[in-house]
Amino acid sequence: MRTQTKETQSDLTPQRAKEILMEGNARFVNNLKANRNLLQQVNETAEGQYPFAIILSCIDSRTSAELIFDQGLGDIFSARIAGNIVNEDILGSMEFACKVAGSKLIVVLGHTKCGAVKGACDHVEMGYLSGLLHKIAPAVEAVPYAGERNSQNGEFVEMVAHQNVLNVTREIQNKSAILRDMLASGEIGLVGGMYNVETGAVEFYDQPAAEKVSVDEAVADKH
């Protein structure tokens, strides 16, 4: 498997970047890891890196993006935080990845049975974790569900995890003018997805995550 170069990166479209991730996940699920010389990739990336995507995922030990998408050194940027939420530092990292380093795709990747989502469903308050879970709370509130709305209800948890991914993709556009402009021009793509911790499979959402967000709406969202 070839190491990403400036040329191969620049030739990619956002759609092709997504397809590469899908192909990698298919290999992962079927235990068919691509043949890579990682030490050679260390040498080939020593003078620069040209990742084709940045993936925002949870810190969960089962959700390493490089592994589940079967990618090598220099292929993707990986931003990880409990509950795959977004904050200013992650937005800055995404802006660097896309505007400076040339990545073509942003992926917001949730996962099933997420502990952070369960904590938000239960309104857990614990130290600094409280502030993080408050960022998932809008997804809890947005899910229309008449049954038990807590972590004991697996169906509700997965509905919240799905909604949280949608909320984060929208928040990225609302808060970053740089990324919003790049999305509008087609320079980059933005997609949400869900990793199944039982099967290893990633489901990308069909609906376009990159909705058109007006400047007025974006400014209003900040207040």
Give a summary of the structure in a few sentences:
This protein has 223 residues and is α/β, with parallel strands linked by helices. The chain has 11 helices and 5 strands.
Explain what the structure shows:
The protein has a five-stranded mixed sheet with strand order 2-1-3-4-5, sandwiched between helices. Residues 212-220 have low confidence and may be disordered. The protein is 46% helix and 12% strand. The protein is α/β, with parallel strands linked by helices and 223 residues long. Strand 1, helix 4 (65-68) and strand 2 (76-80) form a beta-alpha-beta unit. The relative contact order is 0.15. The radius of gyration is 18 Å and the shape is globular.
Any descriptors?
single chain, 223 residues, alpha/beta, 5-stranded mixed sheet, 11 helices, globular
Rounded mean pLDDT score: 92
- The strands making up the biggest β-sheet line up spatially as 2-1-3-4-5
Our estimate of the beta-strand percent is 5-15%
Uncertain ranges: 212-220
Number of helices: 11
State the order of secondary-structure elements, H for helix, E for strand: HHHEHEHEHHHHHEEH
Instruction: State the end-to-end distance.
Output: 46 Å
- What profile does the largest beta sheet have? 5 strands, mixed
Q: Given the helix and strand composition, which structural class is it?
A: alpha/beta
* C-alpha Rg (nearest Å): 18 Å
Percentage of residues assigned to helices? 40-55%
Based on Cα principal axes, name the global outline.
globular
Strands, total number? 5
